[in-house]
Design brief:
mainly alpha, about 220 residues
Length: about 220
């Protein structure tokens, strides 16, 4: 299995180049998956490990797409199929790995149906929280020319810049977004949407860290600390 995983690593690394969804993100998700798996029973690690390594293989293709038609979870599952076949994974495991990849994003009509898929979903979301989540949020802000903090009210911002009801649906102008707005509109909701008990525990702890950080950031910007 280790030889197969090493080959998958090599293939995925070649596909990834964006700063906020690079190989380091995949490695963190992979390690989180293994940690969460320790708290669950009857986990197929062959499925989980391969899915974790492959889950964002199509991220760069989505990032570079200008048509709005590329969705990296769906395309990622398609890209994973020939790789897994080449490495002689059994067809039933290929199907389960593809399922894990397909459902690792927020989608109401695509829910993880296996514990392996739930673990990958949870690990991927946890990497948006905590100290790493703060770092990634500011990397994104720099990439899109955003301010480090926006003092606009949430109600006003949602009315003026959100397409639909949530930030994950779309932004009219991404440069008007900011890390603290991402925290209020998306990050706060993550722990309650996680599937495994251990992930929810970690999520709450990481969320508390972020809440304290953004409170401190606002105080410093206002000259209060």
């Amino acid at each position: 299995m280790e030889a197969k995983l090493e080959r998958i690593r090599e293939i995925v690394e070649k596909e990834l180049s964006s700063s906020h969804h690079d190989w380091e993100h995949v490695a963190r998700v992979y390690n989180l998956c293994l940690h969460l798996a320790e708290h669950e029973s009857n986990i197929d690690l062959e499925i989980l490990k391969a899915a974790a390594l492959l889950h964002d293989i199509a991220r760069v293709k989505e990032f570079r797409d200008r048509t709005g038609t590329v969705e990296h979870a769906t395309l990622g599952a398609e890209m994973a199929n020939p790789i897994l076949k080449m490495l002689d994974y059994p067809q039933e495991k290929i199907a389960q790995i593809e399922h894990c990849i397909t459902v690792h994003r927020y989608r109401r009509n695509r829910k993880p149906q296996t514990t392996e898929a739930q673990i990958l979903f949870d690990a991927d979301k946890l990497d948006s929280l905590g100290a790493v989540g703060v770092a990634r949020a500011f990397m994104m802000a720099d990439h899109f020319g955003q301010k480090i903090y926006s003092d606009v009210s949430i109600e006003e911002y949602v009315r003026d810049n959100i397409i639909g009801e949530k930030a994950e649906v779309g932004l009219k102008n991404v440069s008007k977004h900011a890390p603290n707005l991402e925290f209020e509109l998306k990050f706060k909701n993550i722990p309650e949407r996680l599937y495994t008990r251990k992930a929810r525990q970690i999520g709450k702890e990481r969320l508390q860290f972020m809440e304290n950080f953004f409170k401190r950031l606002k105080m410093e910007i206002d000259g209060e600390a």
